């Protein structure tokens, strides 16, 4: 474990009492990096919130077990079945034999194309459901933006920490633990880009209807907002982020990179490859 002063990927850091983010990030040229985080709540009944990406499975597991003993884990909250969230689910289930998986019927079905989730270890948790996790009550809530129909956010009413899943996704110039480290422009542009990137359908929504969903979510009154693809938000950046969300239905969709962009990147990459050395004579 580490503090924010020594932020490193795959080294958990504390964001609230007994609450830790496991940070990871993917380089995403030419727009910087995307955070790829998960969370652990180390209460009287510890909760793993999403299970990280398969690309760093062993490091992710090591990071998680540096926060909590896997045998103590009581709950695994799976926000949805995308690979960046469910990628290590079977390993986590295997190493946490005392944990119940909080998920949905549709998530289990969607994962069945790759593995059989042990339904005897599952508990369905749909929009608005709560779970008594010993010293705290956790609420599952569909967030305003998502890239998978099964998505549920998680709110911890003890710490007022909200795990917003893919809502508030953003690119960052370099991985940082908190959005406070970003410039106002980086924060605004990242929020407006990330939201349209993960949920291009937001352009199809009625701004007033979408705004009421945003307001309902905002009424959870989170003091700390963490998410898979964003550094942690606090203070005035939380209402700012909600204001950015409300703007998305009226913004033009993000224009995807095209084959011309790819051609240009490849040309740059090829021109930066050192020329082949002439072979020594006689070989
Ligand atoms: Fe997702
Ligand atoms: Fe995601």
From TrEMBL:
Pfam families: Lactamase_B (PF00753). SMART domains: Lactamase_B. Signal peptide: none annotated. Residues 35-206 form the Metallo-beta-lactamase domain. This is MBL fold metallo-hydrolase.
């Amino acid at each position: 474990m580490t503090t924010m002063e020594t932020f490193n990927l795959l080294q958990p850091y504390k964001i609230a009492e007994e609450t830790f983010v496991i940070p990871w990030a993917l380089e995403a040229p030419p727009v910087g990096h995307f955070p790829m985080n998960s969370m652990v709540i180390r209460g009287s009944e510890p909760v793993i919130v999403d299970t990280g990406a398969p690309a760093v499975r062993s490091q992710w597991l090591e990071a998680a077990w540096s926060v909590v003993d896997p045998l103590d884990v009581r709950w695994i909250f799976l926000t949805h079945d995308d690979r960046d969230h469910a990628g290590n689910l079977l390993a986590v289930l295997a190493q946490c034999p005392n944990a119940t998986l909080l998920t949905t019927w549709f998530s289990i079905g969607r994962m069945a194309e790759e593995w059989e989730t042990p339904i005897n270890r599952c508990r369905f948790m749909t929009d608005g459901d709560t779970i008594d996790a010993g010293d705290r009550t956790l609420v599952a809530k569909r967030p305003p933006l998502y890239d998978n129909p099964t998505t549920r956010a998680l709110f911890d009413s003890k710490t007022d920490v909200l795990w917003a899943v893919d809502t508030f996704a953003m690119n960052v110039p370099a991985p940082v633990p908190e959005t406070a480290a970003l410039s106002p422009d980086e924060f605004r542009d990242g929020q407006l880009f990330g939201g349209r990137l993960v949920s291009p359908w937001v352009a199809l929504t009625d701004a007033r209807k979408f705004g009421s969903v945003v307001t309902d979510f905002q009424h959870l009154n989170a003091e700390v907002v963490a998410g898979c693809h964003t550094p942690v938000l606090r203070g005035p950046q939380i209402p700012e982020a909600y204001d950015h969300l409300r703007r998305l239905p009226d913004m033009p969709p993000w224009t995807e990179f095209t084959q011309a962009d790819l051609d240009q990147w490849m040309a740059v990459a090829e021109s930066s490859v050192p020329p082949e050395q002439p072979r020594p004579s006689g070989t």
